[in-house]
Amino acid sequence: MKKTLVSLSVGVFWGSMVSSAWGEDKKVHQDLLDTYKPEQVSEHVYVIHGPMGYPDKQNQGFMNNPGFIVTDKEVVVIDPGSSSAIGRAVLAHIRKISDKPINKVLTTHVHGDHWLGNQAFQEENPEVKFYAHPAMIEEAKNGAAEEWIGTMNSMTDNATEGTEAIIPTEALADGQTFELDGLTLKAHVIDGKAHTDTDVMFEVPEEKVLFTGDTINNKRIVRMDDGSFAGGVKAAEYALGLDVDKIVPGHGHTGSRNVLTYYRDYLGKVYNSVKAMREDMEAHEMKPKIEAQLADYKDWAGYNEELGKHISLSVLEAEQEDF
Predict the structure, then answer these.
(1) Sheet holding 39-40, edge to edge
(2) What is the pLDDT of residue 323?
(3) Class of domain 28-267
(4) Helices 229-240 and 303-321 sit at what angle, rounded to 10 degrees?
(5) Residue 261 buriedness (CB in 10 A; 0-12 / 13-18 / 19+)
(6) Which sequence spans correspond to the domains of the chain?
(7) Which pLDDT value is given to residue 9?
(8) Is the Cα torsion angle 116, 119, 120, 126 positive or negative in sign?
């Protein structure tokens, strides 16, 4: 009980510190601050593992895995979340661990639940640089940013209201590296579509850590409306070719290389089954047969909501493959 009271006191203290630092009109995601703590997955890498659900009023849009790399000279942030309030809570967690400057914030793909937290880091440091896939930058400028602002507001009953879209300006190149005080951070820009056509994975080779974004997920089935099942399998195979053993997925807990294999196999089983059946069956007729191959995934978050859509999307992708 004493330990719990101390933890609550620390949370309240930091909440008041954050509110004071940003002013009363700057919202902070208090539950993220109090309940979701950074986990150290390697010597220099930390991840805040978010909840598995869809954005809603209760989670206030927090449902991804913000990560950060701490060195003696700087901190680098990856995917700071879906609102300014979430970004401020992530920043407050970082400041409990390090007071070093944050000069770089990196985005894995265009979906706003991963990058609309950028605002908090610009508030702290107006000179911070935001990096992303070149196609992500263009899509965000051409309407995706405002669309995601609206989507998050709608899904959370305006809990994310006040968030401004701070669109990345620094276009990443495949193989681009950042030297971080004895560590290397390497960008793997995915060629073509995987989860989207804007995907980047980030590797810390010295610690064998890979941030995959939503290209790979763990115990979470995500929407594929903007993606490719064949491309997702290809991206997973690429990741399996890297010398990494700690996988930070877009959603779900950090795990071993098995995380890559399981998610690759889900995408492959859905897509290859559809290709084999589509000449003789409609999408709804395929579903029971495909489900029989997916027993290992039935308890994954999002399975019931997404599988039917995934089958229909796979049918469309297979048809396009014929042309």
Answers:
(1) 39-40, 45-47, 67-70, 75-78, 102-106, 129-132, 170-171
(2) 74
(3) alpha beta
(4) 100
(5) middle
(6) 28-267
(7) 36
(8) positive
